Amino acid sequence: MNGDGAGRTDDPPAALWAERLAEFACCRVRVRVDGPHDGSGAVAVTTLVWSDGPTVTQMRALIAEFGALEPRLTGTALGFEHRHTARGRALGVLAWLDRDPARVRLPEAIVAQLAAEQIGYPEAAAAHWQLRATGLLGLGSRVGEFTLPALRLLQQSARADGWPAALHWLDGLAEDPGTRLTVVD
């Protein structure tokens, strides 16, 4: 796997173990090697880059298990860059709020951040959660975009009518894509 535009990408052994790690983690993992570019071969940090999939904490645990299988990791300084797709963010937020609906009272930025940090493999959610994520993404300023104002609208609905009613509302939005609400700040 190659890096994504930053750092050095000419490290075939790192690319090979990234492919093995991707199989282990069940998600695409890319490697970005950052360090001196003076030809000395010294490496400051090897950064693992992935979208959705495991949380950083889960990836660290996988690395601990995987490290025994890959001696090259011993002594390697690792960095982690966990990215989130719009759908992954929406699914993560819904899963995190569903675990404790009282969290709808938290500020939307905190909800989004904590969900991203604590919910792993959001893309593997059941079909009804996928449908609800579609409803939430339909509230964005552009359809398919995850936005904090859209999350705020969901939270306001849940505070006013309860979490089950807010989920029912999302179900309706997803089933009737002709319904379009605009969140105004």
What's this entry about, in short?
The protein is mainly alpha-helical and 185 residues long. 48% of the residues lie in helices and 10% in strands. The radius of gyration is 20 Å and the shape is elongated.
Describe this protein's structure.
With 185 residues, the chain is mainly α. 48% of the residues lie in helices and 10% in strands. It is built from 7 helices and 3 strands, in the order αββαβααααα. The chain has a 3-stranded mixed β-sheet with strand order 1-2-3, covered by helices on one side. Helix 2 links the parallel strand 2 and strand 3. Helix 3 packs across helix 4, helix 5 packs across helix 7 and helix 6 crosses helix 7. The chain is elongated and about 60 Å long.
Distance between the termini: 41 Å
Number of strand elements: 3
Q: Structural class, from secondary structure content?
A: mainly alpha
Major sheet: size, sense and barrel closure?
Answer: 3 strands, mixed
How helix-rich are the residues, as a percent range? 40-55%
What sequence of helices (H) and strands (E) makes up the elements? HEEHEHHHHH
How are the strands ordered across the major sheet? 1-2-3
Strand content: 5-15%
Query: For the CA atoms, what is the radius of gyration?
Result: 20 Å
The low-confidence runs, each spanning 5 or more residues with pLDDT under 50, are: 1-9
Shape: elongated
Number of helices: 7
State mean pLDDT (0 to 100 scale).
83
